[in-house]
Amino acid sequence: MLKKTTAGTAMKRKYPEAIAWATCADENGAPNAIALGWSMCTSNEPPMLAISIGHTRYSHELIEESGEFVLVFPSEKMVDATMVVGTKSGRHGDKMEEAGVTLLPGTVVDAPLVDDACANFECKVAGALKTGDHTIFAGEVVAAHVGPEDARRIYIPGGNRQFSPVEPV
Ligand SMILES: Cc1cc2nc3c(=O)[nH]c(=O)nc-3n(C[C@H](O)[C@H](O)[C@H](O)COP(=O)(O)O)c2cc1C
């Protein structure tokens, strides 16, 4: 039996949600990262990924200007770091040191890689679509990197932003 409700209430049924980050860099190469619940694969050939970023985010500005980002699948060791990059804005100062992760240079793009993450995908923006208060940036994967074989991804089990590492299936 179905009950009509608001989109917001129905949306709570989408959890658990896999968490990603997008890293980016400013014109001087200073790094930033944003935590993302909203990311997806969009094409096999060429490999493409999409992320949805709020218009007010500093990362929105940097990705729009640079046309590049790295989509990162953080590991279970990056729960605290995810709270840092997901609650503080790079517009108000460098949060990457507080996040305490090791950044490595991208091999194709200027946005950094995150060491020990489950996976990193270097992307060049192939298209952008404004959708309400977010923009979907579709990125073509120009290089990919994997971390330790046993690194597990993190998920939020509900809308309360608490994380739980889940075994890979
Ligand atoms: C678990 C989690 C998921 C999030 N998902 C998104 C998302 O999909 N899109 C988005 O624009 N912001 C999302 N946010 C919020 C941004 O990560 C947050 O506003 C961040 O501080 C923006 O940083 P910036 O201003 O340096 O870009 C999420 C935050 C958390 C903690």
Structural notes for this entry:
By secondary structure, this protein is α+β, with helices and mostly antiparallel strands. It has a single domain (16-148), classed as Roll (Pnp Oxidase, Chain A). The chain is 16% helix and 40% strand. The protein contains 4 helices and 12 strands, in the order αβββββαβααββββββ. It has a 7-stranded antiparallel beta sheet with strand order 3-2-6-9-10-5-4. Strands 1-11-12 form a 3-stranded antiparallel beta sheet, with no helix packed on it. The protein is globular and about 55 Å long. Bound molecules: flavin mononucleotide (FMN). Flavin mononucleotide (FMN) binds next to strand 3, strand 5, helix 2 and helix 3.
What is the secondary structure topology, with strand pairs?
Layout: H1 7-11, E1 17-18, E2 20-25, E3 31-36, E4 39-43, E5 48-54, H2 58-66, E6 68-73, H3 79-87, H4 96-99, E7 103-104, E8 113-114, E9 119-131, E10 134-146, E11 154-156, E12 164-165
Antiparallel strand pairs: 1-11, 2-3, 2-6, 4-5, 5-10, 6-9, 7-8, 9-10, 11-12
The structure holds flavin mononucleotide.
Q: What's the gyration radius in Å? A: 16 Å
What is the tally of beta strands? Answer: 12
* Whole-number count of domains: 1
Largest sheet: 7 strands, antiparallel
Strand composition percent: 35-45%
Helix content: 10-25%
Features:
single chain, 169 residues, alpha+beta, Pnp Oxidase, Chain A, seven-stranded antiparallel beta sheet, three-stranded antiparallel beta sheet, 4 helices, 12 strands, 40% strand, globular, binds flavin mononucleotide
